[in-house]
Every structure is written in C-alpha cells, then in structure tokens.
Write a structure and sequence with these properties.
Layout (H helix, E strand, L loop, with lengths): L5 H5 L3 E6 L4 H12 L4 E8 L3 H11 L3 E4 L2 H5 L11 E4 L1 H8 L6 E4 L7 H9 L3 E4 L2 H18 L3 E3 L2 H10 L7 E8 L9 H4 L4 H4 L9 H9 L1 H13 L7 E5 L5 E7 L4 E5 L5 H9 L31 H11 L3 H17 L5 H13 L9 H16 L3
Parallel strand pairs: 1-2, 1-5, 2-3, 3-4, 5-6, 6-7, 8-9
Antiparallel strand pairs: 8-10, 10-11
Helix pairs in contact: 2-13, 5-6, 6-7, 7-12, 7-15, 12-14, 15-16, 15-17
Bound molecules: NADPH dihydro-nicotinamide-adenine-dinucleotide phosphate and magnesium ion.
C-alpha cells in the first residue's frame, strides 16, 4: 500500500494542478476538490480554448495561476476579466513550467490526447505525483513515463475507473500471485451490433454513450472499443503486467470496474456506480477513503450484473490493443496518433465509423517498428501516423 504523503501527515491540504479543467474529468475534479477543502486546494488550472469557462472557474476557485495552451486564444484574452492575484500563462511550454513549480504537489492530467504528454512529463521530471486520466500518455510512452517516475520518486495514481479498480484489487496480493487482470467495459452504444449495421453509423449516434458522460474523443473510442484497447496498453505499463495476463470482459452495467484473479482462484473486484468522481477522489486522497460526492449503489431492490466476452470480429480495434501491449516499443505511439487522427476525421464526417479501426490497423502494421525508442522518435512517428491517416481513403 502506498505510504501517506507528506501533506497527509502534516495536515496541510495537497496542492493540485488540474490540466484540462474545462473537460469532463476536469469538471468532476473541481467537484471533488470542492468537497474536501481541508485536504485539497487548487493551485493551477489549464484549458485549451474554452477561455470563458476557464475564467469563470478562476473566479470561483482563485488558483495561483491559470494556463491557456492555445496560443491564439491565450493572447486574445481580455486581461481585465482575470481575477486579481491570478497569474495567466499562455502556451504548452509555459504550462509545463508551471506544473513543476514549488506550489504544486500533485498534477491531475485531464487533457485529452497526445497533447497531454508534455505536462505529464514535466511534472514527473520535477518529481510531482500524478493522477493520470490522460491514458494516451501511457499508451504512447508507457515504459519511458514509468521509468521517469521511478527515477524521480514520483507516484502515478490511476484515474481511469478500470485502472483505479485494478489498483485497489491488486492491494489484496503480491504481483507474482496475479493470474490475470480483467478489465471491464460497457461495450459502448453499439454492443451486439454486426459490421453491416455499423457501416453507416453517424457521429451523433456514436456520441451517445449508454453509461458514461465523457468528452467526444473518448466517447468515440468507447463506441469502437478502441478505448478498451488503449486501456489494455495502459494497464500493461502501469502495473507492469505482460499482455498475456490481460483480459477484457463486457459488463453493460458499468458497476464492476475491473477484477484481479489471483493464482489461488480468488477474484477481487471493485464496484461502485459509474461516476468518475470516485476514482478521482481516490487518486488524490489514497489511502484515505472519506465520504465524498460520489453516488452510491442502491441496495434496496434486486439487480443483476452481466458479463460477456468482447466481440473482436465486429469490433477489431480491441485486438490492436492486445497486439500493441505485446509489441511495446513504437507501436503505442503509432496506434494512438493514428486513432486520434481517425477519430477527428470521423467527427468531421470525413471517415466512416468502421474505417477508424481499419485505418489505424493499417498504419500500425506499416510503420517502421523499433523496440526502444526515445521521446524524439515517438514524436516523429506520431506526426507520421497522423499524416498517413490524413491521406487514408
Ligand atoms: P474532454 O474533451 O471533456 O476535455 C479535454 C480537456 O483537454 C479540456 O479541458 C480541453 O480544453 C483540454 N484540451 C483539449 N485539447 C488540448 C490541447 N491540444 N492541449 C491542451 N489541452 C487541451 O475530455 P475528457 O475529460 O473526457 O478526457 C480527458 C482525458 O481523460 C482523456 O485522456 C480521456 O481518455 C481520459 N479519461 C476520461 C474519462 C471520462 O469519463 N471523461 C474516463 C477515463 C479517462 P478546452 O475545453 O479549452 O478545449
Ligand atoms: Mg476507463
């Protein structure tokens, strides 16, 4: 079990930098922090282009600083609207400097996509603890990120509900006693559908998730099952588990968030209603478990939890996740970038739903694989994969 942090023993609130405060995870994090004023305080907030929303948050929360990563949006801000005493910084590099500051204890990485890597990396370099929502960082550069955290003595706590569940269940035994990690997934809005029914799916249909309310990119990833693929890779690096010990089960109720099976046959699961505020709270306050804002399970009526194997024939994106978890190296960065570009094209009405996995798989298969890339090589391949998907027909 992780030891108590310095703040937890000193009684001072933990100082939180929240990257991506205007998004779905960002808003849930603001809510969690507001419930624990004695334990958590916000030092900094970042957004990309939703400036008005960020300024509103700044007036409410009064952080030390706010960051706008979109340079144009940042430069055109009406500075008279910034609350007195709050510093504004503009651009991703400026944000990366801020997360490394002395006024930050823990960084919540709730930026979407590959853009999340820079701030996460800077925070880890400075030895800050991370509550990682931005799974793309671990998909792209898992071994490098985990190694950096180890060298700097920084803790990485999962925010993703599946990984939060796995983290908690893993506390029941030793890593060498684990037989398998079973990640659960709702199956998304198209569970049970066949390929011919998925051919004409439109963005507005794919954006309707049955159990979770999330940002558009992860919602599309959930519809293709690419989200579960990314989570398999995330678990591979976060828990240092070989791909052979990772499995996925579809669980439409989204209440059991994942399970760990141990060698003796015991299965430990974590269950709670689908509400991201619980894993966020856990990532920030672990090992404490105070009563917080999260919804609770209703035990007054009968209910059932279903589990079924995933359909990888109709949802081939999931297979790519296992493939990449096995390969490591440059495969994660290519998969991630190709998928991000493909999702962007789908949302613009420029690519068919089934082509997201198809294009991503083809670009992945044709890339120049290397087993031990550095960040520079990953960045180069990220750009290459985006260009390849950009011209994919
Ligand atoms: P949203 O789309 O709701 O929010 C994304 C946030 O990132 C916004 O604050 C946005 O700013 C900011 N942002 C967007 N582009 C950039 C950029 N280029 N540079 C810097 N900041 C940027 O996403 P979610 O909150 O749904 O997801 C965030 C991350 O958490 C993702 O990695 C996702 O996979 C992960 N996650 C999300 C879950 C969920 O329930 N939503 C569950 C588990 C993981 P602005 O608003 O100004 O555009
Ligand atoms: Mg998840």
């Amino acid at each position: 079990m992780a030891p108590l942090t310095e703040q937890q023993t000193s009684g001072k609130p933990r100082r939180v930098a929240l990257l991506g405060s205007t998004g779905s995870i960002g808003l849930s994090t603001l809510d969690v922090v507001s419930h624990f004023p004695d334990k958590l305080v916000l030092t900094g907030l970042s957004a990309h282009s939703r400036v008005d929303q960020l300024l509103e948050q700044a007036h409410k929360v009064r952080p030390e600083w706010i960051a706008i990563t979109d340079i144009d949006a940042g430069q055109s801000v009406d500075r008279s609207k910034i609350p007195h005493g709050v510093e504004l910084v503009v651009g991703p590099e400026a944000l990366a400097r801020k997360v490394a500051g002395d006024d930050v204890d823990v960084v919540v990485t709730a930026i979407v996509g590959a853009a999340g890597l820079l701030g996460t990396w800077a925070a880890l370099e400075a030895g800050k603890d991370i509550a990682v929502a931005n799974k793309e960082t671990l998909v792209m550069a898992g071994p490098l990120v985990m190694d950096l955290a180890k060298r700097r003595g920084a803790k990485i706590m999962p925010v993703d509900s599946e990984h939060s569940a796995l983290f908690q269940a893993l506390c029941s035994g030793k890593p060498e006693q684990v037989r398998r990690l079973v990640l659960t997934g709702s199956g998304g809005p198209f569970r049970g559908k066949k390929r011919h029914e998925l051919e004409s799916v439109r963005p507005e249909q794919a954006l309707k998730h049955p159990t979770w309310k999330m940002g558009p990119k992860i919602t599309i990833d959930s519809a293709t099952l690419m989200n579960k693929a990314l989570e398999v890779i995330e678990a591979r690096w976060l828990f240092d588990m070989p791909a052979e010990k990772l499995e996925v089960m579809i669980h439409p109720e989204s209440v059991v968030h994942s399970l760990v099976e141990f060698e003796d046959g015991s299965i430990m699961a974590q269950a709670s209603p689908p509400d991201m505020r619980l894993p966020i709270q856990l990532a920030l306050l672990w090992p404490e478990r105070p009563n917080g804002p999260t919804r609770r399970l209703d035990w007054t009526g009968a209910f059932a939890w279903r589990f079924e194997p995933p359909d990888t024939d109709n949802f081939p994106a999931l297979r790519l996740g296992f493939e990449v978890a096995r390969q490591g190296g440059t495969a994660g960065a290519v998969l991630n970038a190709a998928n991000e570009e493909a999702v962007g094209r789908f949302l613009r009405g420029d690519l068919a739903f089934l082509d997201i996995a198809q294009a991503t798989g083809q670009v992945l298969a044709s890339h120049d694989f290397s087993a031990h890339p550095d960040l520079g090589e990953l960045a180069r391949l990220d750009g290459w994969a985006r260009r390849e998907v950009g011209r994919w027909k």
